[in-house]
Structure formats: structure tokens, C-alpha cells
Design brief:
Blueprint lengths: L7 E12 L2 E9 L8 E2 L2 E3 L6 H13 L5 E8 L10 E9 L19 E8 L11 H15 L16 H12 L5 H11 L2 E4 L13 E4 L25
Parallel strand pairs: 1-6
Antiparallel strand pairs: 1-2, 1-4, 2-3, 2-7, 5-6, 8-9
Length: 241
């Protein structure tokens, strides 16, 4: 039986953003073994006296330069053999990168940091081959959970600017769930489901023409602790798994 000293405790973060109306995942190319040169989720060891949430925030900032994101504990992955260095337990998180500020670039907001040769955004369904460790499984599970949570938590509004059109909101739902929605029915359901307030005298941020813009005025907490798999539902795995 492995001793406590032989147990590796890490955090791994599946960081998502909406880029050009597509849900994308942030990956880093590892510099160090194991899996040197392979794309992976940002991840690293937890300090002996470090809270897990603090470790996830630290690792994400050290490896990618990103900080201040919405971050939530997702699941624990600990299958034997997931790490060639020994028995490893990973506490996985998902993070949401908000839209770029005016004049900023969402793609340029992440940069390679400690132990990283490169950092890049990829469409969640088109990853650059098999990921290091079991990160393909972690990423697929995180994406699956986002598609569940968007229906009963205000998760969509973390992917939108403060003012948005109903079409913007629909594109977020379609990007996260992979489904298409009828515009009229979608608008009616969203107005009934969420606390949305019209923005007077607003203009579409793309065309600058008069448009009906909204802002979300409800609670922003995404309720619930670490999510568990729903009974009878198996997370969809990425092609490389």
C-alpha cells in the first residue's frame, strides 16, 4: 500500500471562454516530464498547507497569467495509472473567462508561464490530439457539466458582456450545449426564466444600430458544491479518449 508521502495531490483547471461565438478551452504545452511537449490543462501540485481553491487560482495564474476568473470545484479524478510518476489524485476545477474588455483581445489574455512552452485556446470539440494524463477525460466532463448547469444557474451571464442582445444570449446557449434554438421560443423562455432588464436607448455593439439590449439583474451565484455525475448519464468523451 502506498504511503502518504507517495501520494501526489494536484489541481487541474478546465478554463473556458467564448471566442467568436464558439466555446473554447485553454490548453498549455508542457515543458517538463512527464508528457513534455504535450498539450494539457493547466495544473500543478497543491502545497502542504494550501487550500484547494487557493491552489487552483495560483496554478492558473502562474501557468497562464489569468486571474480573477470565476472558478468552481468540479470533480476528483484518481484512477490508478493516470500519472506515470505514481499514485495521483487530481481535484479538477472549471473556470470561466469573461468577455474581453473594450480594446482587449480574449485570445491574447493568456500567456505561457511557469513550466509552459505555449498557451492557446482550442475549440472544445477539436483539441490538438490526446492530452497529457487523463486531461481529455477531465475536459470532456467539465464541458458536459457546463451544458447541464447553464439551464439552472446564471452561468451564461459570465460569458456575456454587461449589455447583450437576446441573440447574444442564444449564441452562448448554443455554443455551450451544442444545440440550436428557435429565436422566438428562446426569447420567451429566457424572459420567463431570468431577471433581465431592458437597457434604454441602447445600440447594438456590432452594428451600432438601435437594438433591444438587456442586462442581467439577478443573483450571480452558481449554486452547488462540487458536481457529481447525474445517475444514468455518462459524460461524453472527446475523440482522443
Amino acid at each position: 500500500m502506498a504511503s502518504r508521502r507517495e501520494l501526489i495531490l494536484t489541481v487541474d483547471i478546465a478554463c473556458f471562454a467564448l471566442v467568436e461565438d464558439r466555446l473554447q478551452l485553454l490548453l498549455v504545452r508542457r515543458l517538463e516530464e512527464p508528457f513534455a511537449g504535450t498539450w494539457a490543462l493547466p495544473g500543478g501540485a497543491v502545497g502542504a498547507d494550501e487550500p484547494l481553491d487557493d491552489a487552483a487560482r495560483r496554478v492558473l495564474e502562474e501557468m497562464t497569467g489569468l486571474w480573477g476568473l470565476y472558478l468552481e470545484q468540479l470533480y476528483t479524478f484518481g484512477d490508478p495509472g493516470r500519472d506515470p510518476r505514481g499514485r495521483s489524485i487530481s481535484v479538477a476545477y472549471y473556470a470561466i473567462l469573461p468577455p474581453a474588455s473594450a480594446g482587449g483581445s480574449q485570445r491574447g489574455s493568456a500567456r505561457p508561464g511557469r513550466g509552459v512552452a505555449d498557451a492557446a485556446w482550442y475549440p472544445h470539440h477539436r483539441l490538438p490530439g490526446a492530452l497529457a494524463f487523463d486531461h481529455g477525460r477531465v475536459a470532456a466532463y467539465a464541458r458536459w457539466r457546463l451544458a447541464q448547469k447553464i439551464f439552472y444557474t446564471p452561468l451564461a451571464f459570465y460569458l456575456l458582456p454587461e449589455h447583450f442582445t437576446m441573440a447574444d444570449l442564444r449564441r452562448v446557449y448554443e455554443a455551450v450545449t451544442g444545440e440550436s434554438y428557435d429565436a422566438s421560443n428562446f426569447a420567451r423562455q429566457m424572459m420567463a426564466r431570468w431577471d433581465l432588464a431592458p437597457v434604454p436607448g441602447s445600440r447594438d455593439r456590432r452594428s451600432r444600430r438601435p437594438a433591444r439590449l438587456f442586462r442581467y439583474i439577478g443573483a450571480r451565484e452558481i449554486a452547488g458544491g462540487p458536481d457529481q455525475q447525474i445517475d444514468g448519464v455518462t459524460p461524453v468523451r472527446s475523440d482522443e479518449e
